[in-house]
């Protein structure tokens, strides 16, 4: 680098003047400053190379205290000026007194800055050592709090909003995490609370240990400071977010089928097409501990998935309820068309069919259905409905087709109208000649308080995200001659 600078005419002349005319100090300093602008690109590259070599040569091991302090000092250390870079390359005896005084002044300022950084670092460590308790003291303090409140687990804050008998979130439960922004759900996830795990999202991370011990329906902040709503998963949430094999019977269709069949506690219901186990769970809750459900699935992988989903929900439900979910569903891996020996001796109050060709299985199951009872059929396409009705006509089965229906669900967005600055819009009456004063709603809006009741207009429109077609439901009722 020194040879490269000497090749420049301006620098070569500067060095010559510094050697042969030592009496002209002012001219040497001015020439030295002019040469800095010419050699700035070379000095910058040299400074970077030398700094990298210095860092790699004697760098302490990463993670040590010395490495962290050196990295802190290197980040706060300012860059050298071109005058300082070129003057450091010249011999000491050729520098003028003004340049030497300038270098000493800069070195003193740098030394004072390093001293202040060390002093601040030391005072920060002392304050942390005084305020942060030891691990043994922290564990003793938490254990003492847990002993004073026997019904409350550690890390739990007692809230006045929770009524007596509220159950806290415990490990093993199925929870729902939600984040809403601008009246829309940006993030929703079902997860099982487990020790050592964490909830990950694009808005940050929450440790599962920080969730356990809180009441259901609480807001917890992520590592990025975003509030996430945590609640227990309902049966509707579970069937929508559980792991699936085939498509499920959606809650809106399952509820309508339960109304069609008029299922009550203590009934015995036959289901064909277990699938992922959604309809089995709804039937299990409807019949209760006194009833029973017989569920058949022709595919082995779907049968296994339905059993796993059923057992997972029963385990999570019993954790916060304190009692067992009724074990009233019997799963079989069998074909309903050839399952006459399996159904012998059974009589059913209702039948739910979720099959591709249900008209082939009706001659097998109708003898086991009580007269006047209902068989609800879940079909995806209208062509399947036509095939079903044509099969009933040809076979002459004693059933009446009462209804063929589709259950559309239309969500709406209803919210108060907001301005661009986030304030509420207010209704304004048409101006009159007699009344020139502002209304109470306008005065309250100007004061920054909440507008009065009935003064805020609302927007109401269909939600942009709608559920499309899911299935056709056919209601068949058995009659006697």
Automatic annotation (TrEMBL):
Any one GO biological process: tRNA methylation
Residue ranges, annotated region (Disordered): 45-74, 423-460
InterPro entries, A to Z: SAM-dependent_MTases_sf, TR61B_FKBP-like, TRM61_C, tRNA_MeTrfase_Gcd14
Enzyme Commission code(s) on record: 2.1.1.220
Presence of the UniProt keyword Lyase in the record: no
Catalytic activity entry: an adenosine in mRNA + S-adenosyl-L-methionine = an N(1)-methyladenosine in mRNA + S-adenosyl-L-homocysteine + H(+)
Positions with biased composition (Acidic residues): 432-445
Ranges for domain tRNA (adenine(58)-N(1))-methyltransferase catalytic subunit TRM61 C-terminal: 246-474
Keyword line: Methyltransferase, S-adenosyl-L-methionine, Transferase, tRNA processing
Domain TR61B FKBP-like per the UniProt entry, residue ranges: 171-225
Composition bias, Low complexity: 64-73
Record GO cellular component, one term: tRNA (m1A) methyltransferase complex
Bias type Polar residues, positions: 45-58
Broad EC category: transferase
One of the record's GO molecular function terms: tRNA (adenine(58)-N1)-methyltransferase activity
Pfam families in the record: GCD14, TR61B_FKBP-like
Name of the featured protein: tRNA (adenine(58)-N(1))-methyltransferase
Taxonomic placement: Eukaryota, Metazoa, Chordata, Craniata, Vertebrata
């Amino acid at each position: 680098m020194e040879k490269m600078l000497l090749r420049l005419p301006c620098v070569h002349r500067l060095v010559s003047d510094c050697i042969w005319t030592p009496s002209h100090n002012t001219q040497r300093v001015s020439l030295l400053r002019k040469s800095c602008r010419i050699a700035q690109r070379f000095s910058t590259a040299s400074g970077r190379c030398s700094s990298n070599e210095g860092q790699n040569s004697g760098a302490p091991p990463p993670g040590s205290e010395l490495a962290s302090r050196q990295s802190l000092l290197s980040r706060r250390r300012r860059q050298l000026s071109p005058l300082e870079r070129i003057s450091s390359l010249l011999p000491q005896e050729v520098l003028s007194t003004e340049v030497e005084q300038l270098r000493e002044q800069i070195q003193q300022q740098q030394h004072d800055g390093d001293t202040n950084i060390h002093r601040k670092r030391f005072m920060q460590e002392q304050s942390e050592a005084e305020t942060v308790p030891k691990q043994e003291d922290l564990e003793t303090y938490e254990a003492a709090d847990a002993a004073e409140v026997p019904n409350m687990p550690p890390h739990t804050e007692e809230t006045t909003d929770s009524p007596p008998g509220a159950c806290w979130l415990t490990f093993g439960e199925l929870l729902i995490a939600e984040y809403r922004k601008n009246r829309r759900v940006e993030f929703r996830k079902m997860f099982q609370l487990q020790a050592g795990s964490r909830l990950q999202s694009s808005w940050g991370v929450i440790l599962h240990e920080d969730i356990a011990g809180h009441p259901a329906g609480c807001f917890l902040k992520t590592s990025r400071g975003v509030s996430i709503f945590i609640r227990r998963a309902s049966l509707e949430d579970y069937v929508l977010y559980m792991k699936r094999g085939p498509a499920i019977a959606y809650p809106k269709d399952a509820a309508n089928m339960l109304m069609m069949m008029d299922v009550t506690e203590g009934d015995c219901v036959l289901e064909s097409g277990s699938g992922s186990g959604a309809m089995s769970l709804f039937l299990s809750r409807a019949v209760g501990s006194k009833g029973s459900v017989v569920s058949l699935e022709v595919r082995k992988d779907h049968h296994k998935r339905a059993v796993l989903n059923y057992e997972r929900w029963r385990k999570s439900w019993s954790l916060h309820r304190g009692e067992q979910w009724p074990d009233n569903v019997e799963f079989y891996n069998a074909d309903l068309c050839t399952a006459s020996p399996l159904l012998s001796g059974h009589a059913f109050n209702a039948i739910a069919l979720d099959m591709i060709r249900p008209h082939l299985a009706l001659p097998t199951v109708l003898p086991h259905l009580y007269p006047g009872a209902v068989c609800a059929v879940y079909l995806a396409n209208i062509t399947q409905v036509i095939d079903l009705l044509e099969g009933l006509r040809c076979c002459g089965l004693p059933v009446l087709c009462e209804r063929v229906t589709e259950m559309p669900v239309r969500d709406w967005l209803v919210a108060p109208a907001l301005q661009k600055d986030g304030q509420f819009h207010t209704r304004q009456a048409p101006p009159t000649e007699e009344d020139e004063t502002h209304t109470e709603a306008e005065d309250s809006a100007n004061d920054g308080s909440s507008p009065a009741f009935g003064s805020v207009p609302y927007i109401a429109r269909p939600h942009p995200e709608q559920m499309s077609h899911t299935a056709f439901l056919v209601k068949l009722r058995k009659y006697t001659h």
